[in-house]
Sequence to fold (172 residues):
Amino acid sequence: MKEIVQIGDEVLREVAAEVPVEEIPGKKIQNIVQEMVEALEAEPDGAALAAPQIGVSLRIFVLARRVFGAQSGREEASKDTHLVFINPTIIKRSRRKEYMDEGCLSVRGHYGTKKRHTNVTITAYDEHGHKFTRGAGGLLAQAFQHECDHLDGILFVDGAEKVWDVEVPDRA
Ligand code: ZN
Fold:
């Protein structure tokens, strides 16, 4: 099992590389996605994870459907437990922003308040190499922004309104 990299590690500050689309179905990328899913599943409070958080500087993130399932629409018929976003780009942002509380598996023991766009639209490739577009509001929009930030080397504590300590839950 891959350990989740913590703040202070250089890989979290790199601008992650695009995944060549033709490589998405290949073993290397499929293995990385699997490792991300396993690392996220081991976290009782884990909602999403970006590849740099397992030390891989590639533009991939996964969302746990147990957290976002009700809002996930597109894959409702799928038995997959995670939503996979490869080379994600936020193509639209609402003008409206609001302060939202957030945490990060790479900034354990801290929570913060950060201003986020209330609605965004994202394009990405799924784990099969199919391109899709999705709009989101609320928690899902916040997650899209948080995860895309990871791929540009940004952590939520950068520019957070305030940051406070929280108890770290036991690992699964
Ligand atoms: Zn994070």
User: Anything to note?
Assistant: The pocket of zinc ion is lined by residues 104-106, 146, 150 (CB under 6 Å). Residues 10-165 form a domain with the Peptide Deformylase fold (CATH 3.90.45.10).
